[in-house]
Amino acid sequence: MRDQRLFRAVVVCAVVVVSGQAWTQPTGQGRRGIYGDWVVKSEFNGRTMESILAFSRDPDGNQTGQWISFWGISDLKDVQFEDGQISFTREMRGRDGQTMTSTFKGTIEDGKLTGTVSGGRGDYRLEGQRAPRNPRVAGIWDMTLKMEDREFPVTLTIGTDKEGELTAKWASERGEVNATNIEYNRGSVTMNVKSDHPERQWEATFEGRLGQDGLMGTIKSERGEITAEGKRRGSEMIGTWNLELTGERGTRPQRLVIHPDLTALYGAMPVQNVTMEGDKINFKITMSFGDRDFEMDFAGTVEDGKLNGELTTSMGSQQVSGTKVVRTFRRRNP
């Protein structure tokens, strides 16, 4: 009985750091083609510029694309992709309102995109690869462990590292345990949990299921079972937002993608942490131009799939309004 109580207490107070199998991208360019986001880089006037090429289809099935950067969004025209060859035309507005046109021709092979952009300012090389995709289970989960008539709050953070391997962490006020053989497949999450602490060694498994109402599962060992249930933190703001920024020079489109771990991309700029309290949302972007650092602060609210707020810099402010992208999936016939 004492061992059983000890096992339960250790699990409740545990911090789990998990490193498991790689979460690989679906293979086969024939199936996905160019569709999705591509992170691309170029050298222009001695500076490295990073952008995102986002390819999709319109309602008629035609190939469409957008060039997304810190400066905003440009729609691509004449997007063509066949036998690994890709081309498109980009039109963007200059500082004085003039239209600047450039063309891109390149290839996609082994998950890499390479080619040349040609325009009025000369030619430059563009290289990139498909942006990694987060597994659906990724996120910060506010979990509750239930044992008989008692409940204990813990935090489960699931993500991926730079190599694409799944990582996770159960956090509470005391202790830590490790897990191995983590697997995620079609909504099912499993892992082995083992404590190597000299005074409280034990082994267990976690089996969970991701559903519309959250993450639910059970921690099992030869000493008993513990039920775990949780909700993903920040679910109202996680996803893709189409923004409109309005300032002294007019209105321009932009994109904000908030990841399940509450990092984000504003255009192509990384955001390290998005915070949300109630309906209020905040984040900060720090950039470097030469020897100078440049900061942008956003403060706003989220309600019913709408985002409204203000983006402030040392040079002034812009009003921001946005709508969350709701993706629909066509049901397959049985």
Question: Can you describe what's shown?
Answer:
The protein is mainly beta and 334 residues long. It has 3 domains: 2-23 and 142-232; 35-130, Lipocalin (Beta Barrel), CATH 2.40.128.120; 239-324, Beta Barrel (Lipocalin). 4% of the residues lie in helices and 66% in strands. The chain has 2 helices and 26 strands. The strands form 3 sheets. Strands 1-12-11-10-17-16-15-14-13 form a 9-stranded mixed beta barrel. Strands 21-20-19-18-26-25-24-23-22 form a 9-stranded antiparallel sheet, with no helix packed on it. An 8-stranded antiparallel β-barrel has the order 2-3-4-5-6-7-8-9. Strand 25 and strand 26 form a beta hairpin. The longest helix has 11 residues, at 2-12. The protein is globular and about 70 Å long. The N and C termini lie far apart (50 Å). Residues 1-30 and 329-334 have low confidence and may be disordered.
Radius of gyration: 23 Å
Structural class: mainly beta
Main sheet: strand order:
1-12-11-10-17-16-15-14-13
Averaged pLDDT, please? 83
Main sheet attributes: strand count, strand direction, barrel closure:
9 strands, mixed, barrel
As a percent range, the share of helical residues equals under 10%
- Our count of domains comes out at 3
